[in-house]
Specification:
Elements (H helix, E strand, L loop, with lengths): L5 E7 L4 E6 L4 E6 L6 E7 L9 H8 L3 E2 L4 E3 L5 E8 L4 E2 L7 H8 L4 H4 L7 H10 L12 E3 L3 E3 L5 E3 L9 E6 L3 E6 L16 E6 L9 H4 L2 H14 L8
Antiparallel strand pairs: 1-14, 2-13, 3-12, 3-14, 4-9, 4-13, 5-8, 6-7, 7-12, 10-11
Length: 245
């Protein structure tokens, strides 16, 4: 069987921000080219941007603290924004947030554009603000984000530890849009990464055509809560023309 039609293939360089509307059924694969990548991500309903990724509902509905294959990303309206259809990493962090300019200065030094030009030390907070501005969104629209390729574990006392090199070279995760979903990415170091040098790893992005989850889809069937979430999502499109067919 041939692969679905290729829509886009492009690199996500270290420090780079990126955004795109993934139409319902389309897939986005993120591939860790060298290993040890970290990509912070935000998700919004592209038809109604006030609806966005909800980390607490995503975790409690699926009885988990991390994301991997057959998990889904819930919105704050109880609908499924995206499904994780493939994952060779096994653990993507959901709870430890993203870095800021202050964090970068304390850890790496100034790293300004005036000194380093395109090698400047970018951070996820500023990247998010810049990218969200393209959609008339801003700081107040930043919610708890997802960190692809990152693993952070808690011990019995609740102390968090970053697991280095959680992702190996060539590892990938594939998302399928269940709503028309605005995805915003920032390829910048995770705030708990112990590496002292600023060196975010490159990631490859691939978008392909596809269809939303079928009735027997593993993401829909993985738990009763997900079945109800997909029913609510399907109802969003039922009886009307989608804004972007």
């Amino acid at each position: 069987m041939s692969e679905p039609r290729l829509i886009l293939e492009e690199p996500l360089r270290g420090g780079q921000m990126w955004s795109r509307v993934l139409r319902r059924g389309q897939t986005l694969r993120l591939t860790d080219v060298e290993g040890g990548a970290s990509v912070a991500a935000l998700f919004y309903n592209a038809e109604e941007l006030s609806e966005r990724y909800n980390m607490p509902d995503t975790l409690k509905a699926q009885h988990t603290a991390r994301l991997t294959a057959n998990h889904v990303l819930y919105s704050d309206m109880g609908r499924v924004l995206c499904s994780v259809t493939e994952d060779t990493v096994g653990w993507h962090d959901t709870i430890t947030g993203h870095g800021t300019a202050l964090h970068n200065r304390k850890k790496y030094g100034e790293g300004s554009y005036q000194k380093l030009r395109n090698d400047r030390y970018c951070n996820s907070r500023d990247n998010f603000v810049v990218e969200l501005g393209k959609y008339e969104l801003g700081k107040r629209d930043i919610v708890a984000n997802l960190n692809f390729f990152v693993k952070v574990v808690a011990d019995a006392q609740g102390a968090l530890s970053f697991v280095p090199e959680n992702s190996r070279p060539g590892a990938y995760v594939t998302l399928r849009a269940e709503l028309h979903t605005l995805i915003v990415l920032s390829n910048t170091p995770h705030p708990m990464d112990p590496r002292r040098a600023y060196a975010p790893r490159p990631v490859a992005l691939t978008i392909r055509a596809g269809l939303p989850a079928a009735i027997e889809d593993p993401c829909r069937q993985s738990c009763p809560e997900n079945g109800r979430g997909f029913t609510l999502t399907d109802g969003y499109f039922a009886g009307r023309e989608a804004a972007w067919p």
